[in-house]
Amino acid sequence: MRNGEVSYWWRALGGFPARRPSLPGPAEADVCIVGGGYTGLWTAYYLAGLRPGLRIVVLEAAFAGYGASGRNGGWVTAELPGSRARNARAAGGASGVRDLESALRATVDEVGRVCAAESIDCDFVKGGRLSVATTPSQLARLRGSLAAHRSWGDGADVYQYLTRDETLARVNVAGALGGLYAPASARVQPAALAAGLARAAERRGVEIYEATPVSEIRPAAYGEGPGAVACTKFGDVRARSVLRCTEGYTATLPGLRRALLPMSSHMVVTEPLSAGAWAEIGWNGCETLGDEAHAYMYAQRTADGRIALGGRGVPYRFGSAVDHLGQTDASTVAALTRVLRRMFPAAASAAIQHAWCGVLGVPRDWCATVTYSAAAGLGWAGGYTGHGVAAANLAGRTLAGLVTGETSPLTELPWVGHHSRTWEPEPARWTGVHGLYGLYRLADRLESDPAAGSRVRLGEALGRAGDMISGIPH
Ligand SMILES: Cc1cc2nc3c(=O)[nH]c(=O)nc-3n(C[C@H](O)[C@H](O)[C@H](O)COP(=O)(O)OP(=O)(O)OC[C@H]3O[C@@H](n4cnc5c(N)ncnc54)[C@H](O)[C@@H]3O)c2cc1C
What is the DSSP letter of 73? Predict the structure, then answer.
């Protein structure tokens, strides 16, 4: 089994991509984007479309798609990166939240549209999202979520309840009791999307410099002209606008250690399954698949006939540290393999061929932000809490609009200008996150243990307590 090497997705494309040159020296640009993941690349792509004459420079520490964008589960999903109630309280009220959710649903199609228009071959299939309940507690939670969705006005075009048989007809998950189906979700090969998007941005004239870590982002000093500066060892880039698109890596920049918590997410992928195994599992619609556990899993049927499945595992590294090339620990690989074999007995003998992990950015209030100050020439977007694939496209389009000064319904969405407080200092961060996921794992164990008896209720209560303590929107 391979471990790390950034991700299976990159290996499937033939290994790390050919490196683009580093920044050749100090430079002046109209817009400087720090970070070459989906957020930075979509922002650059749309900006170049809106203002073809702008000099747009992307500075990337490793290579485009090195971060979460080249490692994720490939769910292009319209899930809100944040809590409805908090977004409603912060700005826009309930109608603002509905606007944001509807914009996210439209974003799934926008990603598909650009992939087709730019010939980005990333296995995009809009098969919807299926969340499966495999215990009575999960089923009760699923029904609760459906009721909440209905109370926010989401009809059957947005969320559909599936009976056990309807669920199994889509994907044969062992022990499935029912499901929730959301049509607005697509599957992609994440690294192929990142690589294709980088090339599409370049075709529009965007300059991408790789192996160019930015050591600091600062306002321009007196005499440097308007805007801001991104500092690198090769020289500084001064630009009218400097946009920070570093999500889970933000803590590595000076002064931002507690801004976004780098939450780890881990994945495994099987060898290609036999035709017989696929006949038993079904999954012919290529739905993005998840469950209703507290420490939930996410999975996709890959275009090359494998199951790629992810989950939380070790959730956080002390001091907001990040992984080395996606290397993941043996206990997490074993835990994800157990989940995979329990849900898909037909794949029980399939070898796990690759495991990896990455970091996603979590704000203290679990609500994503797109923000820009024309006066300071500084902006950023991120904090998508694990729902960043579609959200980064919407954020990129929005950031591009904010930089050009063009107001639109996107620039009015409630996440624009949203402010979250910072995380606690260590060791509180580490203790809090590990304590929370310990609680969730215990809750899941109790809920799924047939011998737990009345302790099932204890499991449900622990899960609810975890949600309340963290404020995680479930
Ligand atoms: C394992 C995993 C599974 C996930 N699954 C899903 C999923 O299925 N669906 C979903 O919606 N979301 C998922 N996510 C989250 C999603 O992938 C991210 O939210 C999204 O990719 C964020 O994109 P980004 O461009 O903001 O950040 P990233 O893709 O992380 O890009 C940030 C880039 O900035 C670069 N960088 C960092 N610091 C600097 C610096 N100082 N100077 C220059 N460059 C720098 C990094 O090298 C990196 O390339 C998952 C995340 C992980 C880790």
Answer: -
How big is the CA angle at 6 (ends 335 and 129), to the nearest 5 degrees? 60
In the chain, the amino acid numbered 312 is R
Q: Which of 72, 193, 309, 327 to mutate to test ligand 1, by most ligand atoms within 8 A of the CB atom?
A: 72
Secondary element (H or E) of residue 297: none
With a Cβ cut-off of 6 Å, ligand 1 is lined by 34-40, 59-62, 66-69, 71-75, 77, 213-214, 245-249, 252-253, 265, 267, 298, 310, 357-360, 382, 384, 386-389, 392
Q: What is the pLDDT of residues 280-310, one digit of tens each?
A: 999 999 999 999 999 899 999 999 999 999 9
Residue nearest to atom 21 of ligand 1 (CA): 69
User: Is 404's pLDDT higher than 90?
Assistant: yes
What is the pLDDT at residue 472? 64
Run of H or E residues at 242: strand 235-244
Sheet of 178-182: strand order equals 2-3, 352-362, 261-270, 307-311, 298-301, 288-291, 129-133, 178-182, 160-162
Question: How many other C-beta atoms lie within 10 A of the C-beta of residue 27?
Answer: 20
**Kind of pairing, strands 261-270 and 214-219?**
unpaired
For tokens 């075009």, name the residue: 157
Backbone angles phi, psi at 13, to 5 degrees: -90, 5
Amino acid at 68: A
- Tell me the pairing of strands 129-133 and 378-382: unpaired
Angle at 115 between CA 114 and CA 119, to 5 degrees: 115
Half-sphere exposure of 241 (CA within 13 A, CB side): 26
